[in-house]
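Thread: sanity check for a docking pose with zinc ion

Original post by kr_44:
Hi all, I'm comparing my docking run against an independent structure prediction. Below are the sequence and the ligand SMILES. Could someone generate the full complex and paste the structure tokens? I mainly care about where the ligand ends up relative to the chain.
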Amino acid sequence: LKDFYTDSDGNTEPNPRFYRTGEKRLKFYQRRASRKKKGSANRKKAINKLGRTHLKISRQREEHAKRLARCVIRSNDLVAYEDLRVRNLVKNHCIAKSISDAGWYQFRRWLEHFGEKFGRVTVAVNPAYTSQNCSNCGEVVKKSLSTRTHVCKCGCQLDRDHNAAINILDRALGTVGHIGTLVTDQNACREETSILPGSGLVEQVASLKQESPRLMTGECQDVRKHRDHKP
Ligand SMILES: [Zn+2]
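Reply from moderator J.T.:
Ran it for you. Here is the predicted complex with zinc ion included:
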């Protein structure tokens, strides 16, 4: 939970401070509301305060996600990221984790929004093993969540997230089956082909798409499933 963002060049963006303070404040007001007598005016007041705290945090989160997404999109031709597991997001009740998960969800939506607006390719890839595989030699290097550094026999030593980011980019360039899928979009199966003209990516993407038609259908079904599971 230290960094909000890490890319394949090793750039990082720390988690905003309001994630931590927001989590504390939410816990405080939740406790306060649950201690007041049911139906009392004080309970109403406490619940109202809790709601406003939620709203404030969600606005800050949105602002942060939007600013960073715009910056990332403007400075790259192709942006790849791990595919979102909406179901995990719904299941999770831990406050700290849910704030950062929701932040990540918004960040991804803004990436896709600005990708379309500024003509950049956005690719969501299968997140399986992106952190376990060595980005240099492909060897599996098992690590738990607390292992923050990737150290491989081949001599490759990287920050855990940096290593994963390189794997995500490699995967995106290898399988372009998930191009610009917008989870919230009604036409989720529609392909977003807003690509910089003359960037060379158009041809690459088109040929890869023909090679992996099954991947496309798989993603469409996935998206539908995700949509059904939305709260
Ligand atoms: Zn290696």
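Helices lie at 17-35, 41-74, 86-91, 95-118, 160-174, 201-211, 213-228. Hope that helps with the comparison, let us know if your pose agrees.
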